[in-house]
Amino acid sequence: MSYAASLPWTLDSIDFSRIDIRRVRHDEDLFFLLCSASFVESGSDLYTQNLVDHFAGDQELQTWLSQHWEHEELQHGRALAAYVKAVWPEFDWERGFASFWAEYGAVCTAEQLEPSRGLELAARCVVETGTACLYRALNDITDEPVLKQLTGHIKSDEVRHYKHFYQHFRLYREREGFGRYKVFRAILRRVNEIKSEDGDIALRHVFNQCYPQLRGNEQEFRRVTGRAQGLLRRNIPAAMTVKMLLKPLDLPGRWQDALEKPLAKLAERLFLH
């Protein structure tokens, strides 16, 4: 059986001709969120290779990363790019992505990974939390049927990816013997990296492509992208985000209750690029 046949869904199952363009065409905030997400997802092959190298010798995890995770992440990128091109055909997606890739490819390096394999898996849980909750929020925001279908598929994929990374995290936690404090620090580091790099780079290259006359105008960049971030922030699934972020800490119930509010603030930072 081919790998494509084993995918939970395929690009061919999305009928982009059915997009109700009138419902989304006017929404620049949604455009910025979808296009920046399509850029990051389309760079999955680079950070997959970084992870495959990082887990040298762990054949089971390497195989899953290269034969499953990478294919699904790249499919997310292709699907989101196809949606953007269908609704906003005047946007030169290939040119924008090439510009994004030139910068992102230089900073997406193995040096960003945690030295400990187990802590890197905890950090991966943070990334998957961010993506799962991003697509859940986008799914809640839109009433356009094709985008609703697409973001539902991607959200389900990301939740499943989270579970897979979490299962391997538990195995490495037993092998490496690190405690909650180190896990918590790894979570904080990855939240800050997401905030400062991936999303900001992607949004900046979407902005530069849309407003070349404003390139380098930080005030206008923050004004335009701030609206999009505000839309996302208002639709964050807080309970889902906090639950997923806390899970690797394996906290007693009373500790988890005490941390829910401050962690909700931390969760917001996943979306404040």
Pick out its properties:
273 residues, Ferritin, 11 helices, 74% helix, Ferritin-like_SF
Task: Write structural notes for this entry.
- The protein is mainly α and about 270 residues long.
- It has one domain (about 20-270): Ferritin, CATH 1.20.1260.
- Helix content is about 75%, strand content about 0%.
- The protein contains 11 helices and no strands.
- Helix 5 runs antiparallel to helix 8 (about 180-210) and helix 6 (about 115-140) packs across helix 8 (about 180-210).
- It is globular, with a radius of gyration of 18 Å.
- The N and C termini lie far apart (about 40 Å).
- About 35% of the residues are buried.
- What's the mean pLDDT score? 90
Major beta sheet, specifics? none
Euclidean distance between termini CA atoms: 40 Å
Strand content: under 5%
Write down the secondary-structure element order: HHHHHHHHHHH
Question: In CATH's first tier, which class applies?
Answer: Mainly Alpha
Total beta strand runs = 0
Rg is 18 Å
Unreliable spans are: none
CATH architecture: Up-down Bundle
Class of secondary structure makeup? mainly alpha
Number of helices: 11
What is the count of distinct domains? 1
GO molecular function, one term: oxidoreductase activity
InterPro entries: Ferritin-like_SF, RNR-like
Organism: Dyella soli
Protein name: Ferritin-like domain-containing protein
